[in-house]
Amino acid sequence: MSLLEELLKFSPIPLEPEQAKVLIAKALGYSIIIASSLIKLPQLFKIVQARSGAGINFYGQALELFAYSLNCGYSFAKLYPFSAWGESLFLLLENFLICLAVLNYDNRKKSCFVFAILYSLCFAALMSGFIPINILWYLQSLNLPLAIGGKMMQAWSNYKNRHTGQCSAITATCLCLGCIARIFTTIQETKDSLMIVNFAVASVANFLLVSQIFYYWENTNKFLAKSAKKKKK
């Protein structure tokens, strides 16, 4: 007898193991969505408070943004339950704001405006329903190299700089845990092998970024302190 079957003996509502798995997946899925509506806000607030995107790789963030967007377009077209992919919608919005903030504080205001317009048009097209599902599948297959490429670009910037700048430890840790949880919910709710592989590899990439944040913790604090002194002068 499995651990789940043992636990179900104490449930006030009679449930079969498969029913329990579905309920757990739904509850976990919506919990991830609720958390994702806040998960990147610490990163955004850190950039805005410092009025600097130092250490944040814009191109890495942009690649992640398009990866979340492709996941939304594909899942929406496949009519997957919102509990299986809804966090991508919130994460792309937060990533979009982070990209704009980095460009803005880097005094690239024209680039900021052009990026906002072009991305909005691309996302509208993905969610329009006019793109054939087979094309969306191929686009979704790009999700993995886009997402991992974005993480690796950030990881390379961290390694090169020997600090993680304005990268948020809270955001990175929550993203890592969220991806791990998404492996289970995706298996239960969609059984889409492409999405399962994406979340599995993303978990490893996010773990690398979390490791860097804590490894370079002292260097980062020194860098941020120096940056703050320069601004005061």
Give a structural overview.
- This protein is an all-alpha fold and 233 residues long.
- It has one domain (28-156, 166-221).
- Helix content is 79%, strand content 0%.
- It has eleven helices and no strands.
- The chain has helices at residues 3-8, 17-39, 41-50, 58-77, 86-105, 109-126, 133-141, 143-161, 169-189, 193-215, 217-232.
- Helix 4 packs antiparallel against helix 5 (86-105), helix 5 (86-105) runs antiparallel to helix 6 (109-126) and helix 8 packs parallel to helix 10 (193-215).
- The chain is globular and about 60 Å long.
- 37% of the residues are buried.
- The mean pLDDT is 86.
- Belongs to the MPDU1 (TC 2.A.43.3) family.
- It is a multi-pass membrane protein.
- One of its GO terms (cellular component) is membrane.
- Pfam families: PQ-loop.
- This is Mannose-P-dolichol utilization defect 1 protein homolog.
Q: Care to count the β-strands?
A: 0
The total number of structural domains is 1
What global shape is seen?
A: globular
Distance from N terminus to C terminus (CA atoms, Å) equals 68 Å
Which structural category do the helix and sheet elements fall into? mainly alpha
SSE ordering: HHHHHHHHHHH
| Strand percent estimate | under 5%
**Rg from C-alpha positions?**
20 Å
Major sheet details: none
Mean pLDDT, to the nearest integer, reads 86
Task: Tell me roughly what share of residues is in helical segments.
Answer: over 70%
- Number of contiguous helices: 11
Protein name: Mannose-P-dolichol utilization defect 1 protein homolog
Organism: Tetranychus urticae
Membrane topology: Multi-pass membrane protein
Main location: membrane
